[in-house]
Amino acid sequence: MGSEYFLIIIAIVFFLYGLRIANQYERFVVFRLGKYTTTKDPGLFWIIPFIEWTSKVDMRTITASVEQQEAITKDNVPIKVSTVIWYRTVDPRKAIIEVLDVRSAVVQVALTTQRTLIGQHSLDDVLKEQASLSRQMAIKVDEATEPWGVKVERVEMKNVEIPASMQNVMAQKAEALREKRARIIKAEAEKEASIQLCEAAEMIVRNPAALELRRMQMITEVGADQNTTTIIMMPSEFVSMAGSISQFLKNGAKS
Fold first, then answer.
1. CA–CA gap between residue 31 and residue 33 (Å, rounded)
2. pTM assigned to the model
3. Dihedral through CA 166, CA 75, CA 68, CA 134, nearest 10?
4. Which is deepest, 33, 161, 181, 182, by most CB within 10 Å?
5. 20-31: pLDDT as tens digits
6. What is the mean pLDDT of residues 127-137?
7. DSSP notation for the chain
8. What is the mean pLDDT of residues 152-163?
9. How far is CA 236 from CA 54, 209, 213, 241, 242, in A?
10. What are phi and psi of 61, to 5 degrees?
């Protein structure tokens, strides 16, 4: 009887030793005598102790920061870029069998892809098209990691640092562009104003009374400021007559 109880206890311990529990976000890859047999889904399962063993795989999205690296743009400008990658395992068997360290492998692929991609674009493109470059990088990294059972969901270039000397050059360029736009706007405004003045002059020529109305308006505007300026109104006919008299006197003196 004692030996039977002992065997029962051994059997119970043996059974309990083989029990495993997988959480909802986990998968267990089972190996039997070194060979892959199956992948266990979430829940309670049992393996043969000492003959089978498991490797756990986390199926949740993982965030990996790619350390800041220096790269050379297409126009030979050295910059430092840091990147963040979001990825998850979609095939636990490949993630265990095909690669030793998934996280390290994904980060290294991202570093290589980042340097290559930046080397194909100028500094202006890197600064202006970061979203587009991030999408291209995500596609390329995803293609490289697909054999490992990894899906790259998103890549973001979170920081781009350029040399201080280049920052000064870019600031001067931006200031020059702003001054250029200001001069163009001012020139366009003067052009429009000259067109309006020409049209106003033509209207005054066709209707001389408009000039007198403009003079009256000018007097009103000057008087509104309550200043000490004195304005003497003289009809335009007087000015014309004075000019004629002056010309007549000059001609008489010559004769």
1. 6
2. 0.63
3. 120
4. 161
5. 999 999 999 999
6. 87
7. -HHHHHHHHHHHHHHHHTEEEE-TTEEEEEEETTEEEEEE-SEEEE--TTTEEEEEEE-S-EEEEEEEEEEE-TTS-EEEEEEEEEEEES-HHHHHHT-S-HHHHHHHHHHHHHHHHHHTS-HHHHHH-HHHHHHHHHHHHHHHHGGGTEEEEEEEEEEEE--HHHHHHHHHHHHHHHHHHHHHHHHHHHHHHHHHHHHHHHHHHH-THHHHHHHHHHHHHHHHTT---------HHHHHHHHHHHHHHHHHHH-
8. 85
9. 108, 11, 13, 9, 10
10. -70, 130
In angstroms, the Cα distances linking 3 to 6, 11, 17 are: 5, 12, 21
- Look at the block and give the residue holding tokens 């052009």: 191
pLDDT per residue as tens digits for the range 169-202: 666 776 777 788 888 888 888 888 788 877 777 7
170: CB partners within 8 A, 6+ apart: 162
